[in-house]
Amino acid sequence: MFRDEFYWEDEGYNEEEIRALILDRIEQREKKVKRAMARLGQSDVSQSTSREPIPDDIKLFVWQRDGGRCVKCGSQKNLEFDHIIPVSKGGSNTARNIQLLCEKCNRAKSANLF
Ligand SMILES: [Zn+2]
Questions:
Q1: In terms of domains, do 45 and 87 share one?
Q2: 51, 71, 72, 103: which has the fewest C-beta neighbours closer than 10 Å?
Q3: Cα(100) to centroid of ligand 1, in Å?
């Protein structure tokens, strides 16, 4: 009985060697888990800035702030939520970085960026 788990000798190690191996294995596992969790944490952060859709409450806020119309031409047709600073260039999913644009103005804007 060791750390609430059973281990037994099957490769001719003595008790002390087995204990060392077990400790080593536990340590490796803990390191692996920590590394995996760190990676998970990082991917969570990058997802919230790049892949996550715009949250509904942000959309609602932007929609009301911009009066339900395109901020460029005032059109109320084919409206889209546009990132002022593109997410790929470090823009965030916050109301400050999102505006309402109609499809036409949004396309024109993207065209200017390239
Ligand atoms: Zn427009």
A1: no
A2: 51
A3: 9
pLDDT in tens, the chain (114 residues): 555 555 555 667 788 888 888 899 989 998 988 888 888 776 554 444 445 789 999 999 999 999 999 999 999 999 999 999 988 899 999 999 999 999 999 999 877 765
Rounded CA gap, 97 and 10, in Å? 62
Out of 17, 37, 52, a domain closes at 52
Q: How far is the CA of 81 from the centre of ligand 1 (A)?
A: 12
Residue closest to 81 by CA, chosen among 89, 68, 90: 68
User: What is the reported pTM?
Assistant: 0.53
The alpha carbon of 85 and the centre of ligand 1 are apart by a number of angstroms equal to 17
